[in-house]
Amino acid sequence: MTDPAPRLLDRHWRALEASPVSGERRLRVTDLPVDTPRGRLAAAVDHVGHRHLLVPIASNQAVRRGMHGPALFLRRRPLEDEERYQVYADLSCARADLNDLFSLLCADVLETTEKSPDNPLKVLHRVLDRWKSLFQTTGLPLGPDQVAGLFGELFVLQRLLRLDSSAHRLWLGPTGHPHDFSGHDAAVEVKASTSALGRQARIHGLEQLQAPPRGELHLVWLRLRRTSETEGDGFVELVNRTLELCDDESALATLMAGAGLHLADTDLYRELRFAVDEERWYAVDDTFPRLTSADVAAEHTGRLHDVTYTVDLSTEPPFPLSDNRVRTHLARMTAQ
Q1: pTM to 2 decimal places
Q2: Phi and psi at residue 159, in whole multiples of 5°?
């Protein structure tokens, strides 16, 4: 682009506005000088004068749902003329008084796509998330134990995402599910500790160590150690890596927010680094020390609340699982 992106967009939209569209379901469209493997981005104006930015996508790509006004709309829109058929992610503004702000948003999409043109839909979603974060209220910073716990869950999630880029759907802990990760018949519970002594796992509730019906539950215990900048893995680096591995960054960011981490706050954790000094996986079966609802008389289970206890894994048994058993379990989860 030779002109600044906002000026370029405004010029295209004004030219389109000078020639009304011919029908209610029609758009006037002009290509913009930003190329992608799917074609060029385009500016458009509809029959009532609303401005649109059209981002070309593959026919099998899904546009994010849930953005439907009152001012900003995002939808999937196929367009066809005498020469071509193309599917677009159609971002539009329904309020003329917000056109200036919409121009800045669309200019951000253009400039970012020009730098990273391979997946324009992902760029669009990323830019929308960045703008949305400007208006979101964040919560209180995570405490040390919460950061360590989230580091452990993201450490496991990274392994799952390397097997399946949609494996974020298995991360159910932030939604209130008893297990951190759960498929149809396989689950994983993660416990991370920064203590240099023992292997203590704090258990919350009678369901946390209860395997899925006709399924298998693994508990992974991680010993984390705070490190300097030359050792270990940065917490923010791990966050960014999981986002990069995931095929829906927005869905994953929402899950992170449910776990207490808002992406707008990542600078608060920029200096935090951990080394994983110990990683042990256990099959939670009848030989594993635990309390579940099966251990409580049926007439009392509904009257017990806020049950917490500690499992000491410092001695054996139980014995940790082999790497092959762990890989098989993770593959089972992602194959569903």
Answers
A1: 0.63
A2: -65, -40
